Amino acid sequence: MSNYETNNLSAMFKALSNPHRLALFHRLMSCCAPGTRCGLEETSRVCVGALGDGLEIAPSTLSHHLKELHRAGLIQMERRGKFVECWLEPSVLAELSAFFKSDSNLRSNDHEQLLPTQNRQD
Amino acid sequence: MSNYETNNLSAMFKALSNPHRLALFHRLMSCCAPGTRCGLEETSRVCVGALGDGLEIAPSTLSHHLKELHRAGLIQMERRGKFVECWLEPSVLAELSAFFKSDSNLRSNDHEQLLPTQNRQD
DNA sequence: TTCATAATTCGACATATTTCGAATAATAGA
DNA sequence: TCTATTATTCGAAATATGTCGAATTATGAA
Asked: Which of chain A's residues 1-40 bind strand D, using a 7 Å CB cutoff?
């Protein structure tokens, strides 16, 4: 994993490291049309105020958190009239899911000899 | 997603939000036996010092970061003689990968009416 | 016992994050 | 234009995090 990839990914995880932001992100994940794969082109959108509903945070805090999610590349935002709509690109979910799929992270011999010899045969 | 789950997950993401910690975690992911699914029972272990190799952080910082990863439930640690070995439980990878699989996050009607009516039909 | 190596704990400091309220901007409608 | 609604920006305060060096612990070997 290059430094660039590491920083990009860690920025995403940082955005998700706050419980409020994770909840916001998860709402966006959950609101896709039931019974279909989330997104494709049917990504549903939620306006800012509705996203924060029930979270008990000030509007300014909500705005800040959504900006962080957006800066990390996790969500999209677009003003439509009085409202600002948020949505989630399915490719982002795919990228993150793939990262934790161990198969995609196998390398051949990068880390030979990482254990001292006396500990390798038991 | 319950509050408990949210906090648990966000703690994991917080642990991965630091580039150094993400690099450490990724090394543990990458060092599995080539050609096999990571883990099952062949999880390979790496001792603390070797994990930090090339990362240019002080031993105390390395120790601190590994403790954070452990506290978040992301890695396992066990002393064997002079060394402390670290490894990764495959189930953790599975859990995280599954979280981003949008299918597993579909709910039926939790978020009806999140967009104001005038914006729902375009 | 004494020494060297591996790793952790502790205390300190600089920096970053979370959160809020007040002020501001953007928009739709009367 | 004036007003109400939606959302953002700004500044400040409290708290958390990342990092290091020094001291300490744990262990194996001479």
From this structure: none
